[in-house]
Design a protein that fits this description.
By secondary structure, the chain is an alpha+beta fold. The protein is 33% helix and 34% strand. It has two helices and six strands. Strands 1, 2, 3, 4, 5 and 6 form a six-stranded antiparallel beta sheet that branches. Helix 1 runs antiparallel to helix 2.
Length: 131
């Protein structure tokens, strides 16, 4: 779920994503947990499909219950909707903002945006390599 819309809501055999403490792999009946997630790819293995669903998230919160996995993210983009040119432009804008930061808040905001854009570009390249 992103702030704008529900991205995926169907059965899954497996979900993989980057948690705060490292890579997480979640199967049905997983032990309940709540953790923050890092910017990157969420991979979803859908029953009966050969290709995994792929969603880029810019961080957020993961909740795992024995029969449900919920990802809450400010930004979530389906793999097929990722645009490398747009992401590169946003990364360049973040680099420029980093160079022009006048306060600690500006610096932190620019560093965060740069990290998200770098993760998005890396996720996009990984997604395209699997295609």
């Amino acid at each position: 779920v992103s702030a704008e819309e529900q991205i995926y809501s169907s059965p899954a055999e497996f979900v993989a994503l980057h948690g705060e403490a490292g890579q997480l792999g979640i199967y049905p009946r997983h032990t309940p947990l709540i953790t923050r997630i890092k910017p990157g790819a969420v991979r979803i293995r859908v029953p009966g499909q050969e290709e995994e669903e792929f969603v880029f998230v810019a961080g957020g919160v993961l909740e795992v219950q024995p029969n449900a996995v919920t990802v809450l993210a400010d930004t979530a983009i389906r793999g097929k909707d990722l645009d490398e040119e747009k992401a590169n432009h946003a990364r360049q804008a973040a680099q420029e903002a980093l160079r022009n930061a006048k306060s600690d808040i500006d610096l932190a905001r620019a560093q965060s945006e740069l990290a998200v854009m770098a993760a998005q570009i890396a996720a996009l390249r990984k997604y395209r390599a699997k295609k």
